[in-house]
Amino acid sequence: MAKHATFNVLIVPRAKRNAKQQSEKLYARITVGGERLEISLGRDVSSGLFNPKSQWCPGKTKEARLTNEFITIIKSDLNEIRKELLVEGKEVTAGFIKARYKGLPDPDENKNPTLLEL
């Protein structure tokens, strides 16, 4: 995949499995060159508060302001990870970005062998 492939981050709300809950979980959908992965952001938002079309919570309530600030930080972090991969000369894929975001080693890194593997 080219180093400068298309890159997009969308914030997607998903209803919880329990229909009685009046909130939705937020996910970040990362798309790089047609490859798509989703990351759970571990944040809930009241049902109907988040506008998926504008990727924003309209209004001036405390929850809307905090959620919008959180979304801005997440998008900035994901863009920064992409820039780091480009600077390092590594291939930019959704899997690499997800691994870096979650603090996992890059998929192409050689792990130190364990005693059993040796």
SSE order, one letter for each helix or strand: EEEHH
What coarse outline follows from CA principal-axis ratios?
A: elongated
- Total beta-strand segments: 3
- Specify the structural class: alpha+beta
Radius of gyration, in angstroms, nearest whole number: 17 Å
- Count helical runs: 2
What fraction of residues sit in β-strands? 25-35%
Helical proportion, percent range: 25-40%
Instruction: Report, as a whole number of angstroms, the end-to-end distance.
Output: 33 Å
Strand order of the largest sheet: 1-2-3
Your description of this structure?
With about 120 residues, the protein is an alpha+beta fold. It contains 2 helices and 3 strands, in the order E-E-E-H-H. It has helices spanning about 60-90, 95-100, and strands at about 5-15, 25-30, 35-45. A 3-stranded antiparallel sheet has the order 1-2-3, with helices on one face. Helix 1 (about 60-90) crosses helix 2 (about 95-100). It is elongated. The two termini are about 35 Å apart. The model has no long low-confidence stretch (mean pLDDT about 85).
Write the layout of secondary structure elements.
Blueprint: E1 7-15, E2 23-32, E3 35-46, H1 62-88, H2 94-101
Antiparallel strand pairs: 1-2, 2-3
Helix pairs in contact: 1-2
